[in-house]
Amino acid sequence: MDTSKQCWRGIILLGGPGSGKGTQAVLLAQKLGIAHISTGDLFRENIRMGTELGKVAKTYIEKGELVPDEVTVRMVRERVNRPDCTNGFILDGFPRTVAQADALNQVLAEMHRSLTAVLNLQVAPDVLLERLSRRWTCKACGAVFPEFSAPPRAGCKKEVCDGELYQRPDDKPETQRHRIEVYREQTAPLEAYYAERGLLVEIDGENSIERVHQLILDAVRCVEEEDRHTV
Ligand code: AP5
Ligand code: MG
């Protein structure tokens, strides 16, 4: 994809817990040169730093529940206005409710921007559970891996990263299942929400990481071609 003539891009990655949003967002952000905004990572960062926001978020995250909309929207509104978002952003894990999607429309309108595409990573629940139970996350940079490996390792977000790998506390089997349930009840309605607005693109998320990345690039290219022809 030609990223030399940089245009603004606003991309949402939708999909259940473990569908590969974080994995794909990192690859796509590198490829397109835009910011990767993961609400889960922002909450975990706040929990690590012991902020007031982190204290609130922790009580919900450890139960596999969603953090209240107003708290989440306030955090995202502040984040999308930072300088690294000049060329756009990939939203990973936001919005997760219809109220959050409505709030995002408002934020984008204030920025005089509109979404490029909403990419829905489709992965069956049994595959989600299997992926979450063997996921390891880097303590230092948040990168995720499908198996344990000792540092230094390729794939961390920093060039030299010697972070320890850990398993997320919300990846306990009972919390995993609850997160999938919460996704089905509160987030899956966004598929219809964005389909009605002509923004939803289905991606088969059960392919290899490299293949899913290619499908995503093809989808973004295709959407942008269509937009050029309708202008
Ligand atoms: P969040 O951190 O967003 O968690 P999630 O949605 O449950 O998603 P995950 O991060 O678990 O999975 P992922 O889709 O990123 O998959 P990954 O790439 O890691 O949110 C955590 C919590 O924060 C929520 O439960 C909630 O409490 C709160 N929160 C966050 N956002 C919120 C919001 N907007 N509103 C309210 N509350 C909010 O991949 C998983 C594993 O699979 C990895 O090991 C990876 O290596 C592997 N893998 C990835 N792709 C493939 C592939 N194609 N083939 C094989 N393996 C793969
Ligand atoms: Mg993630």
Write a concise keyword list for the protein shown above.
231 residues; alpha/beta; Rossmann fold; five-stranded parallel beta sheet; 9 helices; 48% helix; binds BIS(adenosine)-5'-pentaphosphate; binds magnesium ion
Query: Gyration radius, to the nearest Å?
Result: 17 Å
> What is the overall shape?
globular
Task: Quickly give the structural class.
Answer: alpha/beta
Binned strand content: 5-15%
Count of separate DSSP helical elements = 9
Attached small molecules: BIS(adenosine)-5'-pentaphosphate, magnesium ion
| Low-confidence sequence ranges | none
Beta-strand segment tally: 8
Largest sheet: 5 strands, parallel
Task: Name the CATH superfamily assignment of one domain.
Answer: P-loop containing nucleotide triphosphate hydrolases
Distance N to C terminus = 20 Å
Strand order of the largest sheet: 2-3-1-4-8
* Integer average pLDDT: 93
Overall helicity:
40-55%
The CATH topology of one domain turns out to be Rossmann fold
Account of the protein in words:
This protein is of the alpha/beta class. The chain has a domain at 9-126 and 199-230: Rossmann fold, CATH 3.40.50.300. It contains nine helices and eight strands. The protein has helices spanning 21-32, 39-49, 52-61, 69-80, 98-110, 125-133, 173-187, 189-196, 209-230, and strands spanning 9-14, 35-38, 88-92, 117-122, 136-138, 144-145, 165-166, 200-204. β5 (136-138) and β6 form a beta hairpin. The chain is globular and about 50 Å long. The structure holds BIS(adenosine)-5'-pentaphosphate and magnesium ion (MG). The site of BIS(adenosine)-5'-pentaphosphate has 32 residues, from α1, α2, α3, β6 and α9. BIS(adenosine)-5'-pentaphosphate (AP5) is lined by residues 15, 17-23, 39-40, 43, 60-61, 64-67, 72, 93-94, 96, 100, 131, 135, 144-146, 170, 179, 208-209, 212.
